[in-house]
Amino acid sequence: xxxxxxxxxxxxxxxxxxxxxVSMVFGDVHAVDxxxxxxxxxxxxxxxxxxxxxKTTLLRMIAGxxxxxxxxxxxxxxxxxxxxxxxxxIGMVFQKxxxxxxxxxAENIAFPLKMRRHDAxxxxxxxxxxxxxxxxxxxxxxxxxxxxxxxxxxVAIARALVFEPDLLLLDEPLAALDRKLREEMQLEFRRIxxxxxxxxxxxxxxxxxxxxxxxEIVIMNDGEIQQKAAPVGAYRTPANAFVANFxxxxxxxxxxxxxxxxxxxxxxxxxxxxxGRIAGNAEAPDIGVNCSGALRAEQIRxxxxxxxxxxxxxxxxxxxxxxxxxxxxxxxxxxxxxxGDTLMRxxxxxxxxxxxxxxxxxxxxGWNARDMQVFKSDR
Length: 379
Ligand code: ATP
Known about the structure:
Rossmann fold; five-stranded antiparallel sheet; binds adenosine-5'-triphosphate; alpha+beta; CATH 2.40.50.100; 9 helices
């Protein structure tokens, strides 16, 4: 008999979806350009990117709706193109839920089982089980139009999962919901996915959603994959300035590289020398080339113009332009003349201090040099 831990290891390594050098060209638009990644079984992957970056096109090819111009996609080792649509074990939830409004929640969930000719005697139990899973036990007899937006979303999830697909595809299913419900449903997706262990690919332009729900994030821009990483990796060690800008609130200081020592970089901006480091997997810029220093809004501390910022290596003077109260934090916009009139955003979460400055006040900003991540600039 196989040792249980060895078989677990094997299952963890098994690749559910493999995208190999896939491109999709519409006329002269490269909607997806040479995309490749592997997704292990049971993982939750989010394809994240701005509007028009190619997310839906990539998802549609994985679903087998569209054929790539080049490359191939494999699900459980089989080319997608070799399996006719009705034989693919893929559950899907889209922004438009396409539930049947004249049917009850239970009838909607039963539908894919009837289509797949499951034994009629087993259907009610399965439907009841999935209603419970999405926390709609007791709502089975309600018609779709008698349910709230969030409840309808749950019906759509149950309907996509009831036939136990190998793969669940989600195309911005939460985009139409209000913020609170959307955040609640993100956690629901995560819970259900963990409970069932179904391999899932989700498409969104919402960076927060990507961080919250995913095991892995693929970040796209202009049809190209910019990075594939776990949420913490994408946030802490972005591969390039695009990723640093797209995830989190990031300040950029443009300059020219003057010194390089391993991962340490010194660059000059407006005559001021700043220190930073090259992020783990980012390409190092050469001495003399233009670079961008990226610094998260939460990594900057603010004090009065003669205040102390003990222990911080990089300190500049600035003037408050705006101060936005967001409840749990204040967002300051600070104009930093000595860095060539760079506008920097700073988060202050300290309830004691966070409303002490207003527009026009002179302040000091400080940060740790290691928090400034330096990327090659394309300018
Ligand atoms: P959004 O977040 O706005 O849905 P997306 O990242 O999903 O955007 P896609 O819908 O994949 O982006 O589109 C990628 C690019 O391909 C866009 O420039 C789009 O205009 C183009 N495109 C998509 N589908 C077609 C099509 N059927 N014919 C021509 N161009 C297309």
